[in-house]
Amino acid sequence: MRAMDVMTTNVITVAPDKTVQEVAVLLSERGISGVPVVDAGGQLIGIVTEGDLLHRAETGTERRTERRRARWFDGMTSDQELAHEYVKAHGRTVAEIMTREVTTVAETTELADVANLLETKRIKRVPVLRDGKLVGIISRANLVRALAAAKSEPASVGESDDRTIRHKLLAELGGQEWAKVWAEDIVVSDRVVHLWLSDDMSPEEHQALRVAAGNVPGVRGIEEHIVPVPLSPIF
Predict the structure, then answer these.
(1) Domain co-membership, 27 together with 106
(2) Each residue of 22-43: pLDDT tens digit?
(3) Phi, psi torsion values for 211, nearest 5 degrees
(4) For residue 172, is it within any domain?
């Protein structure tokens, strides 16, 4: 499987001129731990995570300012490090506190490579780019769902068939007002459609989703996975 098969496509983003407080409210209300930063042209220019908001003057959690030895692994002098931490604690806009060096992947990146990046970089999510523009994001939770939908034995059909099924189902549901599901809630493995559904969905909505999935050519099975509400994008 590749990044395009499991990535979250409805990605919540922020502009660089948003305030730190606005981002904090967004993360809290949406229940997410990070958000990509994009410019007016849709280009990814950074990312803001809970880690960037951990040490703030407003909450009295800023780092102590005594001079320390520079961290050898990032090449900063003590003065550079202290200045950097001051901006993190006192900056008012997203542009001032965001992480600018962002690890990214392409839509065609294999999930094995994505998993290695998350592990080696010790990050929770990785943006997916197409020609420099953000088209999705993959989190550890996305990979766990892919694993849950996978079979222990090799699939009997190619991944391109699974991808086609998922694409057609998402296109069908995208035109239905009743279809309150996110792209990451649908994983197709060996032509079996796996649906992650919130436990407050009505029987009618469940049935409609099963009908929509069953009508996609090539589908040989449907499995539902019920999760507690609220069901929101997981980054």
Answers:
(1) yes
(2) 999 999 988 888 999 999 988 9
(3) -65, -45
(4) yes
Are residues 133 and 48 both part of a single domain?
yes
HSE-up of residue 175 (Cα within 13 Å, Cβ side): 6
What predicted TM-score, i.e. pTM, was given to this entire model? 0.62
Q: Do 155 and 179 lie in a common domain?
A: yes
Which amino acid belongs to residue 93?
T
Strands 44-49 and 105-106: unpaired
Quick count: other Cβ atoms within 10 Å of Cβ 116?
A: 11
Tokens 């990046």 locate to 117
Which H, E and C letters describe 158-211, residue by residue? CHHHHHHHHHHHHHHHHCCCCCCCCHHHEEEECCEEEEEEECCCCHHHHHHHHH
19 lies in the same domain as 120: yes
User: Which structure tokens are listed for 138?
Assistant: 């993959």
Closest CA to 206 of 221, 192, 195, 217: 195
Same domain, 93 and 197: no
The encoded tokens of residue 168 equal 């057609």
**pLDDT of residue 222 exceeding 80:** yes
What whole-number distance in Å separates Cα of residue 202 and Cα of residue 78?
58
Taking the C-alpha atoms of residue 17 and residue 49, their distance in angstroms, rounded to an integer, is 16
Task: Give the number of other CB atoms < 10 A from CB of residue 183.
Answer: 20
